[in-house]
C-alpha cells in the first residue's frame, strides 16, 4: 500500500469466486495492511465484504482453517446467501489480521452482499465484484479519516 501522513491506498483485495478465501495474489496487500495497523495503534478498521449479485449460491468457506490464501479439500462447502458469503469474506480477512497480531477489538467486519457491485453480474469484469473494502477510523474519533479503499480495475 501507499502510506503518507493522511492518506493510505491499498489495491484490490479479491477472493476466489463464490468463496470466502482470499486469492493468493493479494497476500502482499494483506500483509502490508497488517504491518500498517501494527505501526499505528490509533487506527481502527471496518472491513466491508462485497460479492457478485444477490442470488444464493454454493460457496466454499474456510471453516476454522487458517489457510488464508488457498483452497483445498479441507475447506467446507455449503449453500449460503450473498449476505452470508460477504459476512464470511469480511470475517475471514479479519481473522487473518488477528493472526498477524492485530487486536480484534480494532476490527469490525460487515457483509454488504451484492448491493454495491462495480460491474453487472454478467459482465466480463464481474469478478471484481467479489472483494473487500477497508474503512480506516482514528480511535476515539467519529470522523472517517481515510475513507474506503476500492479495487483497482483495468
Radius of gyration using CA atoms only: 15 Å
Residue share in helices?
10-25%
- Distance from N terminus to C terminus (CA atoms, Å) equals 18 Å
Class per helix and strand makeup: alpha+beta
The secondary-structure element order is EEEHEEEHEEE
Strand content: 25-35%
Tally of helical runs: 2
Backbone shape: globular
The largest sheet, given as strand count, sense and whether it forms a barrel, is: 5 strands, mixed
Contiguous low-pLDDT stretches (5 residues minimum) are 143-154
Counting DSSP E segments of at least 2 residues, the number of strands comes to 9
Instruction: Determine the mean pLDDT.
Output: 84
Question: Overview of this structure, please?
Answer:
- The protein has 154 residues and is α+β, with helices and mostly antiparallel strands.
- The protein contains two helices and nine strands; from the N terminus they run E-E-E-H-E-E-E-H-E-E-E.
- It has helices spanning 27-39, 82-99, and strands at 2-4, 7-9, 13-14, 43-50, 57-61, 76-80, 107-111, 131-138, 144-149.
- Strand 8 and strand 9 (144-149) form a beta hairpin.
Amino acid at each position: 500500500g501507499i502510506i503518507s501522513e493522511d492518506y493510505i491506498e491499498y489495491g484490490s483485495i479479491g477472493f476466489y469466486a463464490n468463496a470466502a478465501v482470499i486469492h493468493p495474489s493479494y497476500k502482499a496487500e494483506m500483509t502490508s495492511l497488517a504491518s500498517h495497523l501494527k505501526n499505528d495503534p490509533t487506527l481502527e478498521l471496518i472491513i466491508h465484504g462485497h460479492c457478485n449479485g444477490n442470488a444464493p449460491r454454493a460457496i466454499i468457506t474456510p471453516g476454522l482453517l487458517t489457510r488464508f490464501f488457498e483452497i483445498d479439500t479441507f475447506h467446507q462447502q455449503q449453500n449460503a446467501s450473498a449476505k452470508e458469503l460477504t459476512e464470511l469474506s469480511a470475517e475471514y480477512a479479519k481473522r487473518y489480521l488477528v493472526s498477524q497480531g492485530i487486536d480484534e477489538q480494532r476490527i469490525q467486519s460487515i457483509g454488504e452482499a451484492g448491493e454495491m457491485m462495480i460491474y453487472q453480474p454478467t459482465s466480463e469484469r464481474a469478478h471484481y465484484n467479489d472483494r473487500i473494502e477497508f474503512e480506516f477510523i482514528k480511535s476515539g474519533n467519529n470522523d472517517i479519516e481515510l475513507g474506503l479503499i476500492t479495487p483497482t480495475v483495468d
